[in-house]
Amino acid sequence: MTSKKQVLWLQVCGLAMVQGAITLSWVIYNFYLPKLLVQFGFPQSLAISLLILENALAVFMEPLMGSLSDNNQRWFASRFPFITIGVLLSSALFIAIPCVVTFVPPTTVLKYILPVLVVAWALAMTVFRSPVLSLLGRYAMPKSLPMAASVLTLIGGTIGSFRITANNLLLSFGPVITFAFGSFVLLTSATILRFIHPPEIVSDEPVDRHRAASPPPVSFQALGLIFILGGSFAWGYRLLLDGVGKFLKVQLNSDNIQLQMVLFGMTVAIAALPAGLIAKKIGNRNAMVGSLGVAILLMLLLPVFGANIAILAPLAIAISFVLNGTIPFALEMVPSHRGGLGVGMYFGGVGLAMSIFGSVFAKPQAITPEFAAVIGAIAFLIAFVCILYSRLTVDG
C-alpha cells in the first residue's frame, strides 16, 4: 500500500461483501436450524445445545485459524489458502444441511448425520472468518482502520437488522433454495475478493530482512484484553437488544415491534459511516471509550425513562462507534504480522460469551428488561475498562 493511499476502497468493498455473506449465512442458519431439527425427528431444544457447542468450539478454533493464517501469510505471503478452503467447505456443508433433511430418510442411524453436519459447518466457518477479516489490516493504514471498517459494519449490520422481518421471505423459498442462495453468495463474494486482492500487499511497511527474520513478539496481555473485550461487548450487546425489545413491548403494549427493532439495527449500521470518520480523527480507542461511557449511562436510564427515541437514538449511535471499532481494536493491539490471531481472539471471546449466555439463559424470554439493562451495562463497563487499560498500559 502506498503512503498516499490510506484505504484501498475497492478491496474494502470486496471484504464487506464477504462480511455480508457471512452474516446472511448465519441469519439463514439460525432461522432454519430449529425447523430442520424438528423435521428430522429431533426436539427443537437441541438447537440451543448445538449453538452452545458451536460457540464453545469457536473459543479455540477462531484464534487457532487466525494464527495459522498468520504463519501462512509470513511464509507464503498469502492468507487465501485458509480462506479458500474454509469458504469451499462452508459452502458445500451449508447446502448439504437442507439436502440431508429433504432427501435422506431420518432412520435411527442416519438421523445423527444432521447434528454432525451442522457442527461441521460452524467449524468450517471458523476456518476463514478470522483470516479474511484480518485482511482489513492490509487494506487500510492503521489510523484509517475505523473508516474502512465502517463499510463492513454497514453491510453486516444492514443484513443482520432485517433478520426479524425476513422470516416470511425465507419460508417462501424453502430451505434448499435459501441455503443454496446463501452458499452461492458466499462463494461469489470470496471469489470477487480473491480476484481484486492485490498480490503486492504483504506489509504496511517496507521490507526489512532482519525484522522479517525476527518479527516483534505478540503481547499476551494485549491478547487477553482483546478476548475480554470480545466477550463483554458481545454479552452486553445481546442483553441490550433483548432489553430494548422488551421495553418496547411494554411501552407499545404490543408484541409487534419488528419495525422498531429494524430501525434500531439500521441506525446502528448507518451510524458506522460517520463513526468511522470521527474515530479516524480522534483515535479508535478514544472513540470507543467515550461511546461506551454514553452507552452505559443510557442503559441505566432505560428502566427509568423507557425505550423512547431520546434514549434509543443516541444509544444506537454509541453502540455503532463501539461495534465499528472492535476489529480495528483487535488489529491495532497486535503486530501487523499477527492480525489473524488478534481477530481470532476477539471472535474467541465472542464465542465464549455466547456459549455461557446460552447455558445460563436457556429461556431468554424469561429475562426481565430491567435485568437485561443493568447486566448489559455492567458488561459494557468491563469492555470500557479493557479499552481504557489498553490505552494506559499497552502500546497497540
Walk me through this protein's architecture:
- The chain has 396 residues and is mainly α.
- It folds into 2 domains: 9-213, MFS general substrate transporter like domains (Growth Hormone, Chain: A, Up-down Bundle), CATH 1.20.1250; 220-393, Growth Hormone, Chain: A, CATH 1.20.1250.20.
- 79% of the residues lie in helices and 0% in strands.
- The chain contains 16 helices and no strands.
- Helix 1 (9-39) runs antiparallel to helix 8, helix 10 runs antiparallel to helix 16 and helix 13 (284-305) runs antiparallel to helix 16 (369-393).
- The longest helix has 33 residues, at 220-252.
- The protein is globular.
- The chain starts with 8 loop residues before the first helix and ends with a helix.
- Mean pLDDT is 89; it is low at 200-212.
Helices and strands in order, then pairings?
Elements lengths: L8 H31 L6 H31 L3 H24 L9 H21 L2 H4 L5 H17 L5 H7 L1 H22 L12 H5 L6 H33 L5 H13 L1 H11 L1 H22 L3 H24 L6 H22 L8 H25 L3
